[in-house]
Design goal:
Blueprint (H helix, E strand, L loop, with lengths): L1 E5 L2 E5 L3 E2 L3 H15 L4 E5 L5 E2 L1 H16 L3 E5 L3 H9 L7 E3 L2 H5 L1
Parallel strand pairs: 2-4, 3-5, 4-6, 6-7
Antiparallel strand pairs: 1-2
Length: 107
């Protein structure tokens, strides 16, 4: 998981397979650190995602919950069509902010 700080925002580049597990633990630790450093907006770059399962979705929901509890926000950027469909089916597209690109999300 690659994380880049940009002012009070951070971009987290998700890998091709978002399946939860150890990645969930790493992301939770990373988010706690970012929030403690003053990050207010986390953008998840989803452009590489080829496969995401329910654990991966749960990981993103947990990230959103963590950020909101610290008055932060979360955006999913460059979401592939398969992932958009899954977000739509689960009605999570109405909960997450979606953006066409990372640069749009940061603007």
């Amino acid at each position: 998981m690659n994380v880049q700080r940009i002012g009070n925002a951070a971009v987290v580049v998700l890998e091709a397979r978002v399946l939860g597990g150890q990645l969930s633990v790493e992301l939770a630790d990373q988010l706690r650190r970012l929030v403690s450093e003053g990050v207010e907006h986390v953008v998840f770059d989803c452009s590489n995602v080829e496969l995401i399962n329910s654990s991966g979705i749960g990981m993103l929901v947990a990230a959103l919950t963590t950020l909101r509890s610290h008055h932060g926000r979360c955006t999913l950027a460059a979401v592939p069509e398969k992932m958009r469909t899954l977000l739509s089916i689960t009605h999570l597209d109405s909960i997450f902010a979606l953006s066409d690109s990372v640069s749009d999300a940061l603007a």
